[in-house]
Design goal:
Length: 259
């Protein structure tokens, strides 16, 4: 990709932050003149310590928050110009605590958004089967089970299926695998790549774990002091001399050439 230096046309930018500032009431500045452009089909993993504005960024993308200055654009339109409901239907959201409805079967959990969209029942059922297959859960085995009957990793798969239900072009993931044990987490990273290779969404994933960011992201962003301290491919981030990046690199188990 080195020979391609011209910036992509704006139609290829799925999400853009232009000089965005945001402060929570009585809190520190979460974002301070923050700018970022995410290309369509890219997986951006954002890394930062607790309280560095990672979740704020996700909430600004899906209009749960509005910037106090600057502009956030999704698919070329400012979030303030979108109808919030229409915007959120373009965006799937995967949370760490998956948030499945405990009184609903797995099939009904996945069907929530298609039913809200008024899809006919046969289309809903076909979509639920298709998505459970996609995330590696046999619909015949799992559709009629309840969340409490599944392992953490299985529930997380259902969370991904539910977020993809109406085929949104954008997927936001808030520390989605943080509650899983290391082996299950590694398995979910592999699953994520398999699923993403099939569905090609624009993904923004926030994590405090640089190893996870390297595993998931085609691009990695490091947040510090309300700004983007670094934004590059994992290979470029590993070679970075930026002190903010170094803090995260130094916390990794043995990355690189024994430095």
């Amino acid at each position: 990709m080195d020979g391609h230096h011209s910036s992509p046309p704006s139609a290829e930018i799925a999400i853009e932050f232009a000089n965005v500032s945001f402060r929570h009431p009585n809190g520190p500045l979460a974002l301070d003149g923050f700018s970022l452009a995410i290309e369509r089909g890219e997986t951006l993993a954002l890394v930062g310590r607790s309280g560095t504005g990672k979740t704020t960024i996700l909430k600004l993308i899906n209009h749960l928050l509005l910037p106090q200055s600057g502009v956030v654009r999704v698919e070329g339109r400012a979030t303030s110009d979108w109808d919030p409901i229409r915007l959120r239907r373009r965006i799937g959201y995967v949370l760490q605590e998956v948030g499945l409805f405990p009184h609903m079967t797995i099939g009904r959990n996945v069907a929530v958004a298609p039913r809200l969209e008024g899809w006919p029942e046969d289309r809903v059922n076909a979509r639920v089967d298709e998505l459970l297959d996609l995330v590696g859960l046999n619909p015949k085995t799992y559709a009629d089970r309840y969340p409490r009957e599944l392992s953490g990793g299985q529930r997380q798969r259902v969370g991904v299926a539910r977020a993809l239900a109406v085929d949104p072009p954008i997927l936001l993931m808030d520390e989605p695998f943080g509650a899983l044990d290391p082996l299950t987490r590694a398995e979910m990273h592999r699953e994520f790549h398999r699923i993403q290779s099939q569905v090609r969404k624009t993904v923004v994933c926030v994590t405090h774990d640089l190893g996870e960011a390297f595993s998931l992201g085609t691009k990695v962003g490091v947040l510090a002091d309300g700004k983007l301290a670094a934004f590059a491919t994992p290979a470029e981030i590993i070679r970075s001399n930026n002190p903010e990046v170094k803090i995260f690199l130094d916390a990794l188990p043995r990355v690189g050439s024994g430095e």
